[in-house]
Amino acid sequence: MKNIILIFILFIQVVPAQNKRFVYQYTFIPDSTNKANVVKELMILDVTNDRSMFFSQRKYISDSTIIAPSNKGKFIMPPADLNILYRIEKKMVKPILKVWVILP
């Protein structure tokens, strides 16, 4: 019984803290002169103990599907209709904010 408790306590110490993932629907108007064009995009917010990342779900899926063929030597282009090309990362330990913008 003591061994089981010891293993359980060691397991709790080794397992990292819980990560949380939130999914938001981001609604925006890309062109202020055309207010009828409302675009909706699913955004993901990943939060851990030391950082948070905010990015587009379509961009994340696109990146994942591009990596698999590139490992086999085949390179494909990402979809041209991606609306949000940036990713925001914030580190909690040091207040550093990084924004990545990919221009078409």
Written overview of the protein:
With 104 residues, the chain is α+β, with helices and mostly antiparallel strands. It contains two helices and five strands; from the N terminus they run αβββαββ. Strands 1-2-3-4-5 form a five-stranded antiparallel beta sheet. A hairpin with a 3-residue loop joins strand 2 and strand 3 (51-56). The protein is extended. It starts with a helix and ends with a strand.
The geometry reads as: extended
Helix content: 25-40%
What class would the helix/strand composition place it in?
alpha+beta
Number of helices: 2
How is the topology of this model organized?
Layout: H1 2-14, E1 20-28, E2 39-47, E3 51-56, H2 57-71, E4 87-91, E5 96-100
Antiparallel strand pairs: 1-2, 2-3, 3-4, 4-5
Provide keyphrases for this structure:
single chain, 104 residues, alpha+beta, 5-stranded antiparallel β-sheet, 5 strands, 33% strand
